[in-house]
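Hey all, sorry for the wall of text incoming. These are the two entities for the joint prediction.
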Amino acid sequence: MEHTSTLERVLRGAALALVVIFFMFPLFWIFMMSFQTNETILRIPPSIVFEPTLSNYAALITGRLETAAGTLEINFLRTLWNSVFLSVTSVAVALLLGVPAAYAFARHKFRGSEDIAFTLLSFRFAPPLLVLLPLTIYFQQLGLSNTYFGLVWVYQLICLPLILWIVRGYFEDISADVEYAYRIAGHSWFATFRKIALPLAGPGIAAAGLLAFIFAWNNFVFALVLASADKQPVTVGALAFVTASGIQYGQIAAAIVLSITPTLALALYAQRYLVEGLSLGAVKG
Amino acid sequence: MATLELKNIVKRYKGQAVLDDVTLKVADGETVVLFGPSGAGKTVLLRLIAGVVDPDEGAILIGGEDVTDVDAEYRGVGMAFQNFALFPHMSAFDNIATPLEARRQAPGAIKAGVESVAKLLKIDHVLSHKPRALSNGQKQRTALGRALAGSPPVLLLDDPLRNVDAKLRFEMRLELPRLLDTQGATVVYVTQDYKEAMALGDRIAVMSQGRIRQLGTPEQIYLEPATIEIARLFGDPTINLLDVKPAKDGRGVYVGLSNVQVHLAGPFEQAVGRDCVIGLRPEALSFVRADAPAAVPVTVEAETPLNEKTVTLVRTVRGREILVSRPAGTPGPVSGNAHIAVNPKSALLFDRATGDRIGANKVVALKSGEAA
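and here's what came out:
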């Protein structure tokens, strides 16, 4: 181990602290805001000393928003549920479709396989707005707009390429000989997929699933255009706090806290797994 | 138990033939060693037999049945990979059990089967370990155990001793023939180590550039190599190869070494006057007194004792270097001038242009191709 001087350690600590503050301060500030009324939030100069209130959370949970212009009905919990349902279903469908496809792309080089895989990837770098207008028209004609089915379908544009490409890398990292050995021992290709390929790519599949979940959860523009009030996820639902009588900062903050809690909890829980999984592909053991 | 037959196998990758018209017949219970430098096509051939790679042309028969289009899991072969290819998420027990599970045996039968194989390979004490926790030797034995577990009629071993240390390799080289005998399986064994090939093979198929260059018993390959290349691959120290132009007089065909006429025994008439290479095994040469018939004068350059034998590097009058070996402990010159004699019966002549052996080699190669 190289010797590090005290100064170096202090500087390194300071730099790390700076980075942490930079990224964590907005979260911290929003968390503080969620316990304040609009008045205390907007006072000048701002202060971190205030009388905490749970009124923002109460308004979100009861779904009744008291504003200067009157009472507003906002079904926030419904949008939260929509987010959970849409994200979970989308990731589940994407895993169901993407993992076998990733295996096929990794193991069988067929005519046009690279082209198909690349086309699927291109969904990720085409700006959503590019496809949104034609998609809206199609969905209206097909009767898919404002349905969970339609939304889950569109969410595949986000989840499927992500899962396909990450998981494909994991399958490619598994030595083909290991799979051959299982086949030669007398097992079918499907048994080989289930008993060898899936368990060995497990961490990668989990990491890809988690990433896809976060991406799906954070999606805004697809749901904004293709879903109306009762199918909206939280990202869109939060728009309702921009009311006629002003922006309800307190409620927005509380809504953000509530909406990032599930993904944050999931990410924290799976963090070790995620980092391990994502770096495993790069540095093979 | 089963015979194994390969008929005119051709395999190409990107237009390049890695196997070019390979035909091989392995008798029931026989061990054939595929020997050759890397890139010769040995491993591809083994994978073709296993069914994980399909040939472009030709047929594969196991027990007389055409299995060319049969999937790997139905061929009933066992295979040990060079890199072991153990299932990293399964214990050694589960690894070895996979062929038995595929045969849908009862749990009790699987347990008994795995344990008997493990006992045979002396890994019964590490069965609960994951591959990560096994030493290289134990990994290798586990891989071997997995190949043996289903008692497959055909056993394919892809250089299984490549990745283990020298001591273990030596032990396994002694142990494997006995092990393979108890199995009674038809074995195809791939190796790059000529000693391993000689120790394990009933017959050796020497491969290079996708073709079988010579097929024969270890003795045939060693004593009657078909080409210069094969002669060079077998033997340690390697064979002496000297450019010569044989001539003929009343006593027969002779070559000149250090301006001495050395007469050769053999049907070498066709070599007279052609550019040839003479192959002399170091043990076919011996130090003799200066007045012995056809004694070739040389100067001794260096001497290396190699346990059971002593190898001496000598230089001929025309400056060509030759290795002479003799059993350790026998007297021999250490320096200065000396004379060597050639055992005329063990001299090999090769055509310099083609590398093919001149004389009886063609007959030998054809005969061994048919022998089972």
